[in-house]
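Handout, section 3.2

Students often ask what a structure token actually looks like in practice. Rather than define it abstractly, here is a full record for Baeyer-Villiger monooxygenase. The first block is the sequence as you would receive it.
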Amino acid sequence: MTRTENLGHDHYTLAIVGSGFAGVGAAIRLAHHHQGSVVIFERADSLGGVWRDNTYPGAACDVQSVLYSFSFAPSARWRNTFARQSEIRAYLERVARDHGLLPRLRTRCAVDSITWDTARSRWVLETERGTSTADHVVLATGALADPAIPDIADLDEFEGPVFHSAQWDHSVDLTNRRVAVVGTGASAIQFVPQIQPLVSSLTLFQRTPPWVMPRNDTPISRRIRTATRLIPGVQKLRRAKVYAQREVKLAAFRHPRLMAIGEKEGREHLAHAVSDPVLRAKLTPDYRMGCKRILISDNYYPALAQSNVDVQTIGIARATAHGLVDTDGVAHEVDAIIFGTGFHTSRLPLTDAVTGPEGYTLSEQWGESPRAYMGTSVAGFPNLYLMHGPNIGLGHTSVIMMFESQLRYIDSAMRLTAERDAATVEPTDAAQTEFAREVDELTDGTVWTSGGCTSWYLDPTGRNSNLWPSGIVRYRRRATTFRVHDHLTRTAGGHP
């Protein structure tokens, strides 16, 4: 599924950067605007986003598959409650193919910079294969695109294989090897149980123990898949049920005392799998559930309880040719090092390469605390839309529903330019400030700010600039009811 021709200098109504869920959804839902004049730039050799990149053992979704899919492209093919990586990637490829996106896809075509041309009221995209321009740009690079590897002194001196879970080296045979795993995030929770039976020893370096809840993953029977495919309404009912169940759980995130119920279940889940009191103490969080991402697994705790696993709660000082040295000076000899340390989430990729009309980049305007109107558009950056932008992430349900809501807003913004015969649209400073105030007000008192932990949800200023701190319905209502007075439109050349 690749297309790699030399682009030359082309102009498009709509340019999309990234081909994961957000990019594919944007190309489909905004189709009536671009009248065929659309391009999807992808730096990799095929579409898929995180579901193309993350091929580590055990990779799967943490949201039920019936909800982790587009509402306009339901699937009756899911074989498990929680879909595996290969299934999700195949789903995205199928949706893209069915909606005729492949001719629009430019693979192995990284975007190096995006600069506003005021004279022509368009964006100039310098790509790996030439220069293109576009009236509107959707930045769909995703918040989980660039792996984060901690700065460990002398890491380059280690003689064995070193890789991040999002860049899994399948050429490395871990059988009977001594392996160090650094990090206990959502990816590590999934791959650790898969490699534990293979390795001779596994040393897990844990900075903060996560709350882990039962996954309760079950196969979806052929009978249910057939009924979903053939009986009208079954798919919608199943989706609505899961949506409601997850939306109800939001109450505990907004009123942290209610998290005591989940914490009791989490401690019971740990106690059932881990009998050793010392190990159990290491794995018991000391902060309120939900403050960090809640993880789900039925086999993570049992894997850590095995005799070939050693959980270290001390930091790493440096690497040597043969392993890692902790901050107590103890050497841990290993044959391979795997990082399960997540991604750079402080800002979207490319934000330091997007230059607006005033000559400063998006990153420079944001500083340490990103803000965007509806988490999607930014004052001073016309015709630019951020998928999975500030305050679009979720802690309790499927972000795909937020993407679809964002696309409703983008659709309305693009319609406004057409209706007014305008060249550009952007939010006003006042509207963006008001949206940020609403987010801060909704965040106040929630588990994300009062749960007693430090998480990637909060930016360096201590502000929540990553999560939408309310329900899907509230955001969707805002996205559907487009506020014209919150926006500025200009004709070509920048005239109001």
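Discussion prompt for tutorial groups: The two ends are 43 Å apart (CA to CA). How would you have guessed this from the sequence alone?
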